[in-house]
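Quick one - inputs below.
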Amino acid sequence: KNRRVCHATARLEMGSLWEEFNRLGTEMIVTKAGRRMFPTFQVKLSGLDPLADYVLLMDFVPLDDKRYRWGHGNEDAGAAQADQQPPGRQRPRERPAPGWVMEGHTMHSCMGSPAHLSSPCPPQIILNSMHRYQPRFHVVFVDPRQDSERFAHQNFKSFSFPETQFMAVTAYQNHRITQLKIASNPFAKGFRDGDPEPW
Amino acid sequence: KNRRVCHATARLEMGSLWEEFNRLGTEMIVTKAGRRMFPTFQVKLSGLDPLADYVLLMDFVPLDDKRYRWGHGNEDAGAAQADQQPPGRQRPRERPAPGWVMEGHTMHSCMGSPAHLSSPCPPQIILNSMHRYQPRFHVVFVDPRQDSERFAHQNFKSFSFPETQFMAVTAYQNHRITQLKIASNPFAKGFRDGDPEPW
DNA sequence: CCCTTTTCACCTAGGTGGTAAGAT
DNA sequence: ATCTTACCACCTAGGTGAAAAGGG
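Output:
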């Protein structure tokens, strides 16, 4: 690994909220026009060279080739079934794929401040409903050398936080997820009843 | 000039609206917390090398060292007076000054689409009220050579549109400017009477 | 039956000039 | 007298899940 990335670290923000969702089995709504994810995927970066240029990327790794069903009106667990989707088409890639370029910032203004990757995500990322995904974050050093492509494999570092995995859905399956979204997402305030935990 | 910038051109967007304001004497509200400018300063860029990296900057050049007064309740013209402000402190600089880094975009995603420089501008740019300014736009080629600083003077190209000059104010002086702002700025719709020209 | 799409009321978030009070 | 500040009603812009309708 290049020394410009080997000391890079990324700390997940809102970790306790992510874990609370993960215990219930996080679900993310996907729509044709694009939908934000909540909780927001945010990391705090450190260990970068302030004088170097970086590109930050994000992608979503399919956790399996299975399609999930919600069962016979049962709210407890979803049974995974084999899927007829062409295999290997959305396999995890070890190299950071050009997924989602972050909002600008030359690096020195990004360091230390949370790098939030919500924002408009129109048809940039396509996820299949009823499939599970693992978000992944990549820090890529922009190598100034002319033959930089030969070193591409050592110029990046990737981060994966298991508590951020989720199932893409078009409508919520687990009502507990719905309730936790309503309780914790400011934009869903209109659906709150009393005043439960103020996240 | 470096060949990466010498063919660069910038075309001002909303030119006719800028000119209509300029005929009346454009005024821009400034506040402590920061205020957007309207019309928005937008340019369409062309003539850039898709494979090169650029940084886009903006700054505001004081048009003179004078302080303006509005006269004895007269709405017609403002008389310029000599100002006791330390001269030369905000002189025009020929080199692009680190003024206002644009919203991200590596260049290939910015080319062709308007590069709008409104957005939150908190205390990043400080302008003195009752002074006139000329906005300026800079395209800077990010030179990958190690001794790039030696070529800094040839790696940028600047653009200045006279119709975008304005006077910074804390409250509007010319009522015609107020009316044109209300008529053309969507956020001021609440102050419109009938339905004049739909800008 | 299960999943998807569309539309909607209800929010957050923030950009307007007006207005009145304050500062110099 | 002239300029500045703080607050406000009224907008734009867009992110929520609910509900109903549509599709296979």
